[in-house]
Write a structure and sequence with these properties.
256 residues; alpha+beta; six-stranded antiparallel β-sheet; 14 strands; 18% helix; globular; disordered C terminus
């Protein structure tokens, strides 16, 4: 999978940018070139969806039953989700949200997001804490222009990577080679147990009262890359925003 969010739509952490990212002799690929590479590697069942000059989502279902994690794509009422992995308690979650028993993980995540956006007084981190399993997902809400991504707390899995391309776009993918092609050194694994919202920024849903801090990441060539992000145990946030029926996630970040 591949998600590209144009510069100006989102404000990714500045620490993802490496000062050495584009000093290499090899020219970084444009995001359009990387998208073409993704589609060329999946000529039969790969597809992409563009949203004006704001976002691009590309997806291909697994081509083999040997793929360790399932990939799912779903779109409902201008909300689009790419989901990787699985939820062990999906049946209970579907029942809790009044969804069909046959609904998959991507459908559930869209419904949970829409509930949070439109009417739920429950904080987003609490919803994510209720998810059991190994998972990663990316949501694009075309109605509000919001981006929401999260990954489970299993640090043994690198389900998603994110980076900043040469044109300033934020890229998220499960294929690190696609990220490197456009972002060069300005990338990192998406931090485990964390969520990112285009208005609120990056936070740990496991420890929502703690701030995140960037840690320098050095590659095998000794060059500084995009930072890893960890929980700052000595620094607390002022408050955790709650979204009620009078608000939605488009203004989530303004409440902190």
């Amino acid at each position: 999978m591949l998600a590209i969010f144009k510069n100006g739509l989102v404000n990714p952490p500045k620490e993802l940018n490496s000062p050495f990212s584009f000093n290499a002799c090899e020219r970084p690929k444009g995001t359009d070139e990387t998208l073409k590479d993704f589609l060329a590697s999946h000529p039969i069942n790969g597809f992409s969806i563009g949203f004006l000059d704001k976002a691009l989502l590309a997806y291909a279902p697994p081509q083999s039953t040997l793929v360790p994690h399932q990939r799912l794509f779903c779109g409902v009422n201008d909300i689009y989700c790419i989901f990787l992995g699985s939820l062990n308690n999906l049946s209970n979650l579907n029942k809790q949200y009044g969804l069909s028993k046959g609904g998959n993980e991507a459908m559930f995540v869209i419904e949970a997001y829409r509930t949070l956006r439109d009417r739920s007084p429950i904080p987003a981190h609490k919803v994510l804490q209720d998810l059991e399993g190994s998972f990663g997902f990316v949501i694009y809400d075309h109605k509000t222009g919001a981006v929401f991504a999260a990954i489970s707390a299993d640090k043994a899995l690198n389900l998603l990577f994110w980076g900043i391309a040469v044109d300033g776009s934020l890229m998220i993918s499960d294929n690190v080679d696609l990220i490197k092609a456009s972002c060069k050194k300005s990338f990192a694994p998406f931090p485990a147990g964390c969520m990112y919202h285009s208005e609120r920024g990056l936070m740990s849903y496991e420890h929502p009262m703690n701030k995140m801090k960037a840690m320098p990441r050095i590659d095998s060539e000794g060059v500084m890359c995009g930072a890893n992000f960890t929980i700052d145990t000595f620094s607390k946030v002022n408050s955790i925003p709650r979204v009620g029926s009078e608000a939605n996630w488009a203004t989530w970040g303004q409440q902190a």
